[in-house]
Design goal:
Layout: H1 2-29, H2 37-57, H3 66-75, E1 79-84, E2 90-94, H4 104-107, H5 120-132
Antiparallel strand pairs: 1-2
Helix pairs in contact: 1-2
C-alpha cells in the first residue's frame, strides 16, 4: 500500500498545484467573476486524492499495552528526592510518574487510593456487606 499511497499523494499534489495556479490566473484576468466550476472540482479532487494517499501511506497502528506498561512501573522501585509538597507527599525521581496521586491503597489495598476522592464502588460494596450483616458495625 505504500506505493499506492505515494502515487495518490503525487497525483493529488499535481492537481492541487494546477488548481492553485489556475485560480491565481483566473483572479488576475477576471477579478470580478467567481472561480469556475472546473477549478473548484479539480481542487476538491486534489484534496480527496491527498487525503486518501496520506491514509494509505501511513504506517499501521501499534497496539497500546497499558497493562504491561503499568506493571513495569509498579515493579520498579521509586526513589525519593527528599523534597515534599504542601500536601506532605514526597517528590519521586524515578519509578511511577503517577505516585503523587496516591493510588497505591486504592488499586490493590483496602483503603481509598486517592486523597480527596471517594471510591463509590468500594463504598457501595461496603454498604451491601453492612446490610447483609443486619446493619451492625
Amino acid at each position: 500500500m505504500p506505493f499506492l499511497g505515494t502515487a495518490l499523494n503525487g497525483a493529488g499534489l499535481i492537481f492541487l498545484t494546477h488548481a492553485v495556479y489556475s485560480t491565481h490566473e483566473h483572479s488576475v484576468a477576471f477579478a470580478a467573476s467567481p472561480v469556475p466550476l472546473d477549478i473548484t472540482i479539480e481542487l476538491l479532487l486534489s484534496i480527496f486524492l491527498l487525503s486518501a494517499g496520506i491514509v494509505l501511506s501511513s504506517p499501521d497502528f501499534k497496539p497500546i499495552q497499558w497493562a504491561q506498561w503499568s506493571g513495569k512501573i509498579s515493579r520498579e522501585t521509586r526513589k525519593g528526592e527528599g523534597q515534599w509538597t504542601r500536601e506532605g507527599e514526597e517528590f519521586l525521581s524515578e519509578g511511577d510518574p503517577y505516585a503523587f496521586l496516591g493510588l497505591d491503597g486504592g488499586i490493590g489495598g483496602k483503603s481509598e487510593g486517592r486523597r480527596g476522592f471517594w471510591d463509590v464502588r468500594a463504598k457501595r460494596k461496603e454498604y451491601e456487606e453492612w446490610v447483609k450483616s443486619g446493619g451492625q458495625s
